Amino acid sequence: MAATYLPTLKQLQYLVALRDHGHFGRAAEACFVTQSTLSAGLRDLETLIGVVLVERTRRVVRFTPLGERFVAKARRVLREAEELGDLARAAGRPLTGEMRMSVIPTIAPFMLPRILPRLRRDYPELKLFLREESSAAACEGLHAGRTDCVLLALPFACGEVASMPLFDDRLFLAFQDEGEDIPATVDPDTIDADSLLLLEDGHCLKDHALAACNRPDLRAGATMLGTSLHTIVQMVDNGLGVTVLPEMALKAGILDHTSITARPLGEASAVRQVALVWRRASPRESDFRLLAGVLADIG
């Protein structure tokens, strides 16, 4: 029987890194090897399979159509290889070893300061690597295998995932306090579309806010800003508009030292559900459920 030559996991890692970074030098840094080592590994891979995967020029790294298909398959192979290690970890002590978790920006600064000390104390052998990114990027990273789980706010279309809800987070309208009589709740119909400041596309809080208000005209009139809630709060404090904030941000003191008042939106749907999500059939599901229980208890 003729010998079968298969790509190595290291070669697949080099290929995926080059696709992600689009540059040989940056891909090599991400893989902790020299650029010559990465280049040689990819040349060996192309020689092994007998096709060109990457077109190299002085200025551009361009993947061939077959190269793009090869990368997609390589991501799945690498993810499956990682899950072999996950199987072993899952059979041992709970919440040990490395775990990569993405957290969306409208949760990270308000929840992480409370949960990280507890995790360090109760699970000292857990090495939690955190990435803060938008909901869309976090879900893409989850399916690509760059992250193991995501601390997310639902509803959000994250694809085929498993999830465990942690708690509900009510939505509030934040506006400059001008000393007038302020009602206990805010009717969404009274919001001026031209004054509403929201995060840009890719942040689920924007969609939650628009859904809670149930006014199609707000989507057209609101100003979408690619920035943080802290920056938007400063804009509101300077009289540039109003915004929607989650209750966890208010409890964390985001309005401290401002002249901003916040009132809950008077709609039953004006709430988002904070949840932990992960890939379906992950061998670390028991770890994720345990982690979700800890987060729910702290949150």
UniProtKB/TrEMBL annotation:
Protein's UniProt keywords contain Zinc: no
Keyword Transcription regulation listed: yes
Segments forming domain HTH lysR-type: 7-64
GO MF annotation terms: DNA binding; DNA-binding transcription factor activity
One Pfam family here: HTH_1
Ranges that cross the membrane: none
Recorded GO CC terms: protein-DNA complex
CDD domains, sorted: PBP2_OxyR
InterPro entries listed in its UniProt record: LysR_HTH_N, LysR_subst-bd, WH-like_DNA-bd_sf, WH_DNA-bd_sf
Assigned keywords, A-Z: DNA-binding, Transcription, Transcription regulation
PROSITE patterns cross-referenced by the UniProt entry: HTH_LYSR
Protein family per UniProt: Belongs to the LysR transcriptional regulatory family.
Full protein name: LysR family transcriptional regulator
Organism this protein belongs to: Sphingomonas metalli
